[in-house]
Every structure is written in structure tokens, then in C-alpha cells.
User: What shape does this take?
Amino acid sequence: MKKHDKMSLESLVIHAGIEENEYLAVVPPIYQTSTFAFDSAEQGAALFSGECQGYIYSRMGNPTVVALEKSLAALEGGYGGLACGSGMAAIHTTFATLLQAGDHLVCSDAVYGPTCTLVETILPRYGIDCTLVDSSNLSAIEEAIRPNTKVIYVETPGNPTLVICDLEAVSALAHRHGAKVVIDNTFMSPILQQPFRWGVDVVVHSLTKFLNGHADVVGGAIVAKDQEQYLAFRKVLNQLGGILPPFESFLVHRGIKTLALRMGRHCENAAKVADFLEQHSAVEWVRFPGLKSHPQYEIARKQMLGPGGMISFELRGGLEAGRTMMNAVKLCVLAVSLGGVESLIQHPASMTHASMGAEARHRANITDGLVRVSVGIEGVEDIIADLDQAMNAIKS
Ligand SMILES: Cc1ncc(COP(=O)(O)O)c(C=O)c1O
Assistant: This one.
């Protein structure tokens, strides 16, 4: 039994993946190398054939990257993690492993824009069909399933509408039909949602967001439930090549040490910001999993350990008012991405979800006036004061 098998998530973020090293350095070194020397020609051949274990070449494995991968697997409660060059590289590698020509995929309609573009325009070029559905509607998912459906892919809460999918129910449904469930757990991180506990088969992440938490790395991850699946992902990742380099792996692993603390603060701040927005006369509607007005509030309470730091809302003045507000923020940064320590504000229809096109956005309820905020860990009174003064700019 490994030393971290019984640890809480709060301890795992600090200790998982940190192993004894040559000099007993408390923080393991960064192995900034592309390749590893062999003891002999025979040993090199044995490493390649799998007769002995060790590092060969950093696309195939690197100790700094492996340390992060062990941490990710421990946090998600999976068998093995695979660090990828971006969230999109992780999603692409997952589809390339689980699907082949002739297969069908059911995908939530409210997903990160480029994920939607990938399943709608790139996978069909390889003979893989996709049906987009409202993942909060179980019968819509069931209706979309075909005999050749191999994967049901969901983001929950979905980006940017924060629609929630019942993970236990969708996993049971998928397994009845011989399909696997893949979830993008980026919005929650393993601190707030443990998908394997609900029967999910594969977890993917954009490490760029909450896991790294400091807006200075682009990265992604796949976490596999069992050894067979892990080896299949490893083989495809090795051939496709979308790996995370050692320095970025080190930074993400360092960021993870404060993940539990940060997620707690993101949740607290976002709950207060959501309350403020819901009571503001300039706001038409607010979506936040911690608000009772969220349509899937009860499912959120069942499967999520906190509401997260993401809020979507629309102003009464629609798109024009939203633009005025975004141009008037001072503390919040007008930028895409999310999950960093700083609060970010952006407009999905013209930014993160522009690539999916107006029709797909309409189907996913991503209205033109929707504004998305990633609530940071600043003093919440400062965030609220900033949003308030920015909304005052609308009236003048
Ligand atoms: C939910 C979600 N999944 C995946 C991605 C893609 O991640 P990356 O930008 O690291 O490729 C993003 C990016 O914003 C995202 O928000």
C-alpha cells in the first residue's frame, strides 16, 4: 500500500507524486532533458522491449512529468494519469484512443467551443459521427444513443452555461448500452468533484485552469480508471506526441499544492458574487450551481462538493450592456481562460465559443448576452465593488 492511500484530498495535493530522490530534496528536481543514457546497448534494447523498466526519451516518460501524473491519478482516485500539452490535446488523445471509423459519439452541447468544433468538424473526417445533446436531459441522451455509440462525453458543469449532468445516471445509462462516459472535470477539479465515484470511465482536464491555478501554463490531463485503459492512452499519446514538458509539469505540480485551499476560496467568493449579481437590478439572470435558482441545483448538491468559481449571467441590456460592463472592469481582467487566482471576465459568444458558430451556440443556450466570470481569490469585497462600478457604467 502506498503511503498516500488513506490520505485526505487536502493532504494528497501536497504529498501525492512526491517521492524520495537522490539528494532527499523536499521538492524533487526538474529533469529538463529530452533523452536518457543507457547502461549498455543490451539495456537500451531491454528498455524498448519492456523487459526492464526505466526512462528512455521524454516523449515516452520523464520523472518530473511522472510525479505530476501520479499526483493527478491519486487526486482523482484513478489508476494512472497522463499529462498532455493542453486540455485540447488530452481530449483529442482520449477520442483517438476510444473511437475509430464507424463509431458514434454522444456529446453534451454545452462544452468548451473548440471541443464542440473538434467533434463536429474534425472527428467526422475520420469517420466518427457525433450527436450533440442537452446533457441535463437523460432521455435526450438515451434517444441519441445508437448501436455504434462508444462514448458519451460531458462537461459538468458545462462551459459556459453551467448546465449539470447527473453523472451517476448517465454512467448507468451508458454502461447499459456498452458505451463509456468521459467527463471534462476542469470546472470542478478533483477537489469539488470525484467522477469515478459516480461510475464515470475516463476523466480529462485542462490543467491550464484550476489545477495549475496561476495562469502561467497551458496543459491537460487524462486520468484512466484501470491499467488496461491507461496503457491504451499511453500508447496513443506517445504516437500523437501531445505531451507536457518537464518544466510545465513542475509548475502544475507546484500549483496543485494549494488546490484545496484555492478551491475553498473560489467557492466562497463566487457564492457571494453570485448573490450580489442575483440581487442587482441590472441583471436579467444568473447561473451558478450554488444558487437555488439553478435548474439542476439538487444534482449539484448530490455530486459536487462545492459550487465552484464559475458564474454566467446576462444583463437586462443584453450584449451592449455586457460589452460596456466588460470594458469598465478595473480589478477583474478582461481575458479568456479561467481558474487562476485572479478574477477574469469574458464574452463566450465572441470569444471562447465563437468557433462553434451561432447555430450550435443557440442549441446550447449560449446567448449573445451571456457574460462569464471566473471568480478569483482576491478579497471578495473588491471583486463585488469592481463589478458594481462596471455595471454603473451601463446607466451613464
Ligand atoms: C472546460 C474546458 N475544457 C477544455 C479546455 C481546453 O483546455 P486548453 O486550453 O488547456 O487546451 C478549456 C479551455 O478553456 C475548458 O474551459
User: Anything to note?
Assistant: The two ends are 64 Å apart (CA to CA). The first helix runs from residue 9 to 15. The longest strand covers residues 149-155.
